[in-house]
């Protein structure tokens, strides 16, 4: 692999979006391609509006990258795999330039953007045995020696985000994310997330297609269809945190920020605000406190020619967390009154808010 890359071409379904150039140790420049300015869209509406301007992130966030590019990089599980894969060939991931890290992202990378040139470090042989992959993933997560199937684990999961081990698998024409448990989750976290998504769906929340894959060692592995893939096309995605150029690792956002962003960037404002309100209520009433700014995202809809709220994801109960990652009306331990107060702030009717809350309580309490 090439260790230092100073320039990348950014593409979206084979069309050139623009270019990233490492100017020096601290500064990275981005500029849209002329043809993209004429017929494309802003990949980050607040930070990178369509223009021929040269953009440089002076905030020094994300090692000089804008949030939309940081979204593409792996974190959590994906970072662990990438670090281990590079260790095998004597490369320190933490010393790589940001553009070199972007060049490592393969076809399963998150979102709609791809980067050239591409640095390939994994082997191409893969073995799809979910129980074996789960066992190997747990060993890697817990710091055991790299096993002989590491290359398979890395190829299928090296572009992942989030803390839990997972793989990105293309089955026929559909991409799916399949998650594995860690010892901290318990073996049956898969069916727990499956049940959470079932409840959310019954509550009228837009969740992506999901299923439970069979296992001989647990009750099954949770899998969801990727919403950043549509047939053979990639779909552009940007998280709430990255739109606001902030990290999701610090609880510095409130649900009000989510509603404000929807009101500015979404093409179906009322529909998306009501959808986000249902998700806020579900997270609070069900007990999903892992509701940080990277667990809310926006898709660019090429038919509607605008951004829409992505389907809900990472829905699970988190009893070990003391407070919500995103506060509700300034409260990290929100109550029903906070949900109703937020409804007033965003100008939803009392009847709508009451109906949403009562419906969710009825469904989660009668499960």
Report a brief summary of the structure.
This protein is of the alpha+beta class and 367 residues long.
Biggest β-sheet: strands ordered side by side in the sheet: 4-3-2-1-5
Helix content: 25-40%
Query: What is the mean predicted local confidence, pLDDT?
Result: 90
Number of helices: 12
Unreliable parts: none
* H-E string: EEEHEHHHEHHEEHEEEEEHHHEEHH
**How does the overall form come out from the CA principal axes?**
globular
Protein architecture, described:
With 367 residues, the protein is an alpha+beta fold. The chain has helices at 34-39, 67-70, 77-87, 98-103, 130-141, 150-157, 189-202, 240-243, 255-265, 269-286, 336-345, 350-365, and strands at residues 7-12, 15-22, 28-32, 55-56, 113-116, 166-171, 174-179, 210-213, 221-225, 229-230, 233-234, 237-239, 297-301, 306-309. Strands 4-3-2-1-5 form a five-stranded antiparallel beta sheet. A four-stranded antiparallel beta sheet has the order 6-7-9-8. A hairpin with a 5-residue loop joins strand 2 and strand 3 (28-32). Helix 3 crosses helix 6 (150-157) and helix 9 runs antiparallel to helix 10 (269-286). It is globular, with a radius of gyration of 21 Å. It starts with 6 loop residues before the first strand and ends with a helix. The mean pLDDT is 90.
SSE topology sketch:
Elements: E1 7-12, E2 15-22, E3 28-32, H1 34-39, E4 55-56, H2 67-70, H3 77-87, H4 98-103, E5 113-116, H5 130-141, H6 150-157, E6 166-171, E7 174-179, H7 189-202, E8 210-213, E9 221-225, E10 229-230, E11 233-234, E12 237-239, H8 240-243, H9 255-265, H10 269-286, E13 297-301, E14 306-309, H11 336-345, H12 350-365
Antiparallel strand pairs: 1-2, 1-5, 2-3, 3-4, 6-7, 7-9, 8-9, 10-11, 12-13, 13-14
Helix pairs in contact: 3-6, 9-10, 10-12, 11-12
